[in-house]
Design goal:
Distance between the termini: 38 Å
Number of helices: 15
């Protein structure tokens, strides 16, 4: 037993306060600030259906690396030296992956694919070995199942990098689809069966805080893009109002997530006896939609800042309206998954944005700048409704928490 003790310390204990986010985790996130910025630029430079699909695929891949690492640091203690060095190694591979993003579907397909495979498999092997050394056979087998699914997907990543062209996207989408599908069948492997994910112990506070921090990373990237483009633009009334519109939009997104979502999610998952299942749905899957909305709004902000007074084109219209609609959808599903009701404010907001998308081409002389302020007005209305018109926070949270408690007691 004493031989296992130093390795056992690599894992978190579940004492109060032991689930706090470590500084090395915040340091690790810096790579993903860069990755999200690279994704925004890729979409801007390839603003076609194909370019957007490539951006979506790479965004999901980046998120998939980050969220699996978050699960690992939820179990392991990142302040211990071996875990810390594992994260530093992941940062190096993540930097390679991030630098490859602009040309991942050109001459840097190999660095992207290899870095991705190394990150997913290397981290998983590290955890499997650590669990085996402390004699936790069940957890080691669970992580082995996950590793086998990554191995199964790896040839498709490699083949895509090798062939290039249209087939590369198909093969990479297939690889990512395999990995996204794996949790839905609980990582079933012939001879090993499937994992009981619902029984996995998750430090709910840590998971919720990490997801919130990634949202801040994504929103911060939007500010970086806005500031960079504005600093290179002429200081005219139009560019100043476009800059203000971008800033206001970022603040509204922050309010939608953090005013009535992040803290409630923290309490909900911490109180639940099925924290693993909630973490899988709420923080592993649904947050991809939220992050996608933030990345898309950064693209829209740059388009508007670059041409605030130009005639409104179809691509700018689609991006500027789709970004908050996607974010509202993700926020709606996120809040519903943590016990909130179906928020009418979000449903009305999505309906209003859809109507604006249909009506905008019929408005004489509408510019990207004017459209952005219209969109901000709709999102602001959603925030106001949440805060003052339909104040669901206290009553609905108490009701949902009581319902959750009754389910757990049952």
């Amino acid at each position: 037993m004493t031989a296992y003790l130093p390795v056992a310390r690599l894992f978190r204990n579940r004492a109060p306060g032991a689930d706090r986010v470590a500084f090395i985790e915040l340091f690790f996130d810096l790579v993903f600030v860069f990755a999200v910025t690279q994704l925004s630029h890729h979409v801007i430079e390839h603003l076609t259906p194909r370019g957007v699909l490539e951006g979506v695929l790479m965004l999901v891949a980046v998120w998939w690396v980050w969220i699996y690492t978050t699960w690992v640091t939820n179990w392991m203690n990142p302040e211990k030296t071996p875990v810390r060095w594992m994260l530093i190694a992941m940062m190096l591979a993540g930097l390679v992956l991030s630098t490859a993003i602009p040309y991942a579907f050109a001459d840097r397909a190999w660095p992207f694919a290899i870095a991705y495979i190394v990150m997913q498999l290397g981290r998983t092997i590290f955890v499997v070995v650590s669990y085996r050394r402390v004699g936790e056979h069940g957890n080691a087998v669970n992580l082995t199942r996950i590793g086998i699914w990554f191995v199964f997907a790896a040839p498709f990543w490699i083949a895509g990098a090798a062939v290039g062209g249209d087939l590369q996207f198909v093969l990479w989408a297939l690889a990512l689809g395999i990995e996204l599908f794996a949790p839905t069948v609980r990582y079933w492997v012939p001879g090993l069966g499937n994992a009981n994910i619902d029984s996995w112990a998750v430090a709910g506070g840590h998971m919720a805080e990490r997801a919130g921090l990634f949202m801040i990373v994504a929103l911060g990237e939007s500010i970086i893009v806005t500031g960079t483009v504005f600093s290179r633009s002429d200081f005219t009334p139009s560019t100043i109002f476009a800059f203000l519109a971008a800033f206001v939009g970022t603040i509204l997104f922050w309010l939608l997530y953090f005013s009535h979502g992040a803290e409630h999610g923290h309490r909900f998952i911490s109180a639940s006896e099925q924290s693993g299942a909630i973490a899988r749905l709420t923080y592993t899957y649904l947050h991809m939609i939220l992050v996608g909305g933030v990345v898309l709004v950064a693209v829209g902000d740059e388009l508007v800042l670059a041409h605030p007074d130009d005639p409104l084109d179809a691509a700018t219209l689609a991006v500027v309206v789709a970004a908050p609609a996607l974010y509202l959808l993700g926020n709606l599903l996120f809040k519903r998954s943590i016990g909130r009701p179906w928020l009418r404010s979000h449903l009305l907001g999505m309906a209003a944005l859809t109507s604006l998308w249909l009506a905008a081409p019929l408005i004489p002389g509408i510019t990207p700048l004017a459209l952005t302020w219209m969109v901000n007005g709709i999102v602001a209305l959603v925030v106001i409704i949440d805060e003052y018109v339909w104040p669901t926070d206290e009553d609905d949270e108490a009701e949902s928490e009581n319902e959750a408690a009754e389910r757990h007691e049952g």
